[in-house]
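Below is how a single chain appears once it has passed through the pipeline. First comes the sequence as given, then the structure the pipeline wrote out for it. We keep one example in the README because the format questions we get most often are answered faster by looking than by reading.
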Amino acid sequence: MTQYNRWYHPYDIDEKYNKRVAYFSMEYGIDQAFKIYSGGLGFLAGSHMRSAHDLRQNMIGIGMLWKYGYYDQVRHDDQSMRAQFQKKFYTFLEETDITVSVAVNGHQVKVKALVLKPEVFGTVPMYFLTTDIPENDYLAQTITHRLYDPEMSTRIAQSIVLGIGGGKVVEALGGADVYHMNEAHALPLSFWLLDKYRSVEKVREHMVFTTHTPEKAGNEEHDINFLDRMSFFNGTPLEEVRKLTHMDGHLFNHTLAALRLSKVANGVSQLHGEVARQMWNEKHGICEIKAITNAQHANYWTDDDLWDALQTGNDNALVVRKKEMKHLLFKIVSDQTGKLFSPEVLTIVWARRFAAYKRADLLVRDFERFLQIINNNERPVQVIWAGKPYPFDEGAVNTFNKLVNLSEKQPNMAVLSGYEMELSRKLKQGSDVWLNTPRRPREASGTSGMTASMNGSINFSIQDGWLPEYARHGENSFILPIVDTNLPEHLQDSEDHKNLMHILEHEIVPAYYHDRGKWLSIMKQSMFDVLPFFGSDRMAHEYYEKLYSY
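Resulting structure:
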């Protein structure tokens, strides 16, 4: 196992992508078997690693080996959600003989790197860091136990391991030209680079940054003295930290620091690029914020038979295959809920992270009206929800459980647990409509709609994230009118709900049941329009073009 203790790729690098890039992400959605992700950030990073491999780019991935993953979403006896933290073993990871040390809260912690070789899942070489080794005491071992641990000091320690530990692993492999932080979780990396280069200008030459969310919760802030005590700044004196990052108060904003210590940054859709520039542009000393629209790996997410039918113009085969995929999804529905869904019935899916701004329960805001629509004998509708709330977010868990309770005696309504990559794929393949209801403009990208389109599931969405670059109402999707975001949230919700129900009742349901030609045309157009632009090969190329060569 000697090859992977140095910078190595088992393929010839395409000269367009010669620059050495180390990509840092707290989570990756690579394959169902590898449970080290929570949601969209991970799905995006996983697709990037696959496309970087397909394009023969000179890139490696740096991540964390989570012993208990994010969590396994299971049920209590009453069907409400339970978060299970189950130990994971991955026999496909291999030793590298690379172990480095980092300081956490003034104590030395050993960090071991294991490699995921490209031939396993079709990614670039990826290195996963663990502190769960005998050389560390129990507290240090727990740093890499849970993705997004609720204990704040553990979360900070995780950033130190990813950033500084990851930086040292890259150095042991031979070093990189560009260090790419996917979100600011790896920010301690910049202070390790400062120690390496002894110049903040040099740090900026080598660092780029992708910001993913306009949500305040996604832009972490912590007490700067607490971070200093935790060794977050890699021994850089606090006064120098303040000077370099222009943080004068007691709160240290991770995203803002990343924007000030990088040569260039990007938002993850054209709209999000604008939102990010508006959010941060009044702050002095930040780098340019470009926009590179997120994308997903077509070969991983698409169904070959469905695409063969589309590309050969075989409408009958397309319809038959879609029904077969609905059957496969409905087996999961019946297994989990005891409900028998019909492939003849219009099926809507809402599936993503259960975050408050995503409004999982918008569709049931007027529950009686909702029931009238789904239980219409002539034109019934089946609705499926799935998604993982953050396990320590009581409000999000309560929303999930509320939907479980509402669905209990409803034959056309189901809530599924275990929303991971394989269930995500099945939901996209087996749905007719992919519902997306975030409060605009709080969805940075929303890539699940891309993979839904790749599988003939028509987007029904708020105009947020990637949708304005893709959607044409009534042609390749169904889009809600833009609501005034200056309104109080409850009025925005009310207006969006009104528009949602109107389009569902008067456009979507009639087209599905009474104008199959139109429905098929929209479905086909949605597939034609999503690729190649929203495939991650375009995205992986753009990162080299717009960020790494900046």
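The two ends are 35 Å apart (CA to CA).

See the next section for the split statistics.
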